[in-house]
Design a protein that fits this description.
single chain; mainly beta; 21 strands; binds 6-O-phosphono-beta-D-glucopyranose; globular
């Protein structure tokens, strides 16, 4: 179909079996997925994934018990989509952190069965309300394949007549047994910007281990990374396409306490490892051009 044509969101009668749309937390519409390879959940609010359980495994994603579930507020955990900026907006501190698309309800475009997965497609177009924050015409599409692997693709199209640049992240919260015991060896040797230390540029020495507030943007980090979680007997592997940076975030004690939508002790059980293009890797997009960033998650 011509992507410029207006189309209606698909209706539940068109869903494959194993897919259900119902009110989730806070009454927000939630799609539940069940197929032999996996179970999962995604909210239309923010096109926000909140659960992916490969068959026989526990949930790979983490969601806070204290999350707010309200239109206009971000969900704490799962996979918030950050776009069109990452962190605070540089020229407007009053703008929402990590952009506005995680605060909006997306349109459900399709749910299909493909090979060994159920695939959900959602979209959000720029409109007058998004232009309040960002003056560009865009179409964002999120495609999630729930299978024995989780495949998330965020596609951005410039539907206006002037070039623009943007930042983006698939801000994935993973569940771990104890963040103080995990390691992420593949980031060894990478330069990073330390957001927990005045944006100092540093070099990673050895595997990433978490022993304090950690908020880092690893630069030129394109190779797969593995989160080794010995206490859970699990390894989570994240493979990326068209993402130059990997963000690693854990708020640790004080920041967790300061966040109203984050339990005081919950920092122990989570780590964010995010496919990202920000800072000097912002994406430049000419009119009609498309950019797709993908993160593939596997666990064993
Ligand atoms: C991380 C950022 O990706 O997200 C951190 O690097 C930020 O600086 C964190 O604190 C959480 O952001 P938010 O807006 O969801 O609380």
């Amino acid at each position: 179909m011509d992507s410029t044509m207006k189309q209606d969101a698909i209706r539940p009668a068109e869903f494959p079996s194993g897919v259900k749309l119902s009110p989730g937390n806070g009454g927000l519409p939630k799609l539940q997925i069940s197929c032999p390879q996996a179970e999962g959940e995604i909210y239309l609010h923010g096109a926000h994934l909140t659960s992916w359980k490969p068959a026989g495994a526990r949930d790979v994603l983490w969601v806070s018990q204290k999350s707010m579930w309200e239109s206009g507020k971000p969900i704490r955990g799962g996979v918030p989509i950050c776009f069109p900026w990452f962190g605070p907006k540089k020229d407007d501190p009053s703008a929402p952190i990590h952009g506005f698309v995680r605060l909006r309800e997306w349109r459900l475009d399709g749910v299909t069965t493909e090979q060994d997965a159920i695939v959900v497609a959602l979209s959000l177009n720029g409109d007058d309300s998004t232009k309040r924050w960002w003056p560009h015409d865009f179409r964002a599409r999120m495609r999630v394949a729930f299978g024995s692997r989780l495949i998330m693709s965020l596609e951005v199209e410039n539907s206006g007549d002037a070039a623009f640049s943007f930042e983006e992240a698939l801000h994935t919260y993973f569940g771990v047994a104890d963040v103080r015991q995990i390691e992420i060896p593949a980031l060894d040797g990478h330069d990073y910007i330390d957001k927990a230390d005045r944006l100092a540029e540093k070099k990673q020495q050895g595997a990433v281990r978490i022993s304090a507030e950690t908020d880092r943007v690893y630069l030129n980090a394109v190779k797969p990374v593995e989160i080794r979680d010995p206490a859970m007997h699990r390894r989570i592997r994240v493979t990326k396409q068209n993402s130059n940076e990997t963000v690693v975030w854990n708020p640790w004690v004080a920041k967790a306490k300061a966040m109203p939508d984050f339990g005081d002790d919950e920092w122990i059980g989570m780590i964010c490892v995010e496919a990202c293009n920000a800072l000097s890797s912002s994406v430049q997009l000419a009119p009609s051009a498309l950019h797709t960033m993908t993160a593939i998650v596997e666990q064993h």
